[in-house]
Model the fold of this input.
Amino acid sequence: MVVEKFSQNVINSGIFRLYIATGFFATLIFFVLNADLYTPLEMMFGIIGVTIVLKGVSNMMLSLIILLFDLDSKRKELDFKYNEEKINEMMAELGVQEAQNVGNKTT
Done:
């Protein structure tokens, strides 16, 4: 759940779309500046090929980020919250039992 939320935040940030768009336009500019060396069909395949490669690289980068994401701190935080809730529940139950015991002694 934590990794899914993190990866969704990374995807929604748009950094990968910006990376792919920058690569696309850089490739487009490269082919326009070197138009006398390439045919239009080569340019089109080159631009599409580079865009596909950049999309693959961005997916690999995302998977590497997820792989290297440290879950130990999140696990400790979740364990602490869980233990804190359990302790609070036990303290409330103990308070109720003490109140019942005091009520039974006075009556």
In short: The mean pLDDT is 83. Helices lie at 2-13, 15-33, 40-68, 72-106. The chain has one domain: 2-76. DSSP finds four helices and no strands in the chain.
